[in-house]
């Protein structure tokens, strides 16, 4: 998942990184026009620096709650890396087995609230429960009280991506209602808007996601993400990485 007054750089980061060169036509934060999806999904990563300069910078960190495809997008931006974490489970193993929940990926470490201060930005991913985030994610946010008291997350940028069981199951409301968590911490919500271009307007297939962030329709849990949904997730990763990089170098 990703981090005060603009963006608080990682303590390991060079405090004066070289400037990123970008023009208005290729600014990584400028929304592209809705052109054909096959041509449009060029992600917001048109910044340039030399390889020797980049070696002098410790990479910025964006912590990600879910989605390896989104991590691929983050890692595609020079000087930024995505780190995958999962929040603690709140249900017993017996309950999870009864629900036929697949086994967890032990290669993805569990995160604690204290770990959040090390990140420069966040991408929080979670399934919906009645149009809001699942209880496990809410419990994790509830554990960040000391960070709120000390203002440790103020100004840190964050985005959301979600999973719902049906088309009307909360693709927008799940992210929308989660914004309150960011607001109370003084964090910066970073939606993707329509920067995905034509892919946001495709109507020839079922697609999750919204201007709030990427999303998938899980159905009963057996549906696999479509290529458009995966491409949107990768786009959000690159877009978020470009935003974090720009904030930290401001």
Task: Describe this entry's structure for a reader.
The structure is a single chain. The protein has helices at 37-40, 51-55, 68-75, 93-98, 135-142, 145-150, 173-185, 227-248; strands spanning 60-64, 80-84, 121-129, 132-133, 157-164, 188-189, 215-217. The chain is of the alpha/beta class. Strands 1, 2, 3, 4, 5, 6 and 7 form a seven-stranded mixed β-sheet that branches.
List keywords for this structure.
about 15% strand; seven-stranded mixed β-sheet; NAD(P)H dehydrogenase (Quinone) FQR1-like 2; alpha/beta; about 250 residues
In a nutshell, what does this entry contain?
This is NAD(P)H dehydrogenase (Quinone) FQR1-like 2. This protein has eight helices and seven strands.
Topology:
Elements: H1 37-40, H2 51-55, E1 60-64, H3 68-75, E2 80-84, H4 93-98, E3 121-129, E4 132-133, H5 135-142, H6 145-150, E5 157-164, H7 173-185, E6 188-189, E7 215-217, H8 227-248
Helix pairs in contact: 3-8
Helix content: 25-40%
Beta-strand residue percentage: 5-15%
Residue-averaged pLDDT: 78
Q: What is the terminal-to-terminal distance?
A: 22 Å
> Major sheet: size, sense and barrel closure?
7 strands, mixed
- Extract low-pLDDT stretches: 1-57
Total of DSSP H or I helical runs spanning 4+ residues: 8
Radius of gyration: 18 Å
SSE sequence, one letter per element: HHEHEHEEHHEHEEH
Oligomer: single chain
Structural class: alpha/beta
- Rough outline: globular
Number of strands: 7
């Amino acid at each position: 998942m990703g981090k005060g007054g603009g963006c608080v750089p990682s303590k390991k980061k060079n405090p004066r990184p070289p400037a990123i060169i970008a023009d208005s036509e290729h600014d990584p934060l400028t929304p592209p026009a809705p052109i054909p999806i096959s041509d449009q999904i060029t992600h917001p990563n048109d910044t340039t620096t030399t390889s020797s300069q980049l070696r002098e910078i410790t990479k910025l960190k964006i912590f990600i709650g879910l989605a390896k495809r989104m991590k691929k997008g983050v890692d595609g931006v020079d000087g930024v890396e995505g780190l995958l974490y999962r929040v603690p489970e709140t249900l017993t193993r017996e309950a999870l087995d009864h629900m036929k929940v697949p086994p967890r990926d032990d290669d993805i470490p569990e995160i604690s609230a204290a770990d959040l201060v090390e990140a420069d930005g966040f991408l929080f991913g979670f399934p919906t429960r009645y149009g809001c985030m699942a209880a496990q994610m809410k419990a994790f946010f509830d554990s960040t009280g000391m960070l709120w008291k000390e203002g440790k997350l103020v100004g840190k940028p964050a985005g959301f991506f979600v999973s719902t069981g049906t088309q009307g199951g909360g693709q927008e409301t799940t992210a929308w209602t989660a914004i309150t968590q960011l607001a109370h911490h003084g964090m910066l919500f970073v939606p993707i808007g329509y920067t995905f271009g034509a892919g946001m307007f495709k109507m020839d297939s079922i697609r999750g996601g919204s201007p709030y962030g990427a999303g998938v329709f899980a159905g009963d849990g057996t549906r696999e993400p479509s290529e458009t949904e995966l491409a949107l997730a990768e786009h959000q990763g690159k877009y978020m990485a470009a935003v974090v990089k720009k904030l930290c170098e401001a």
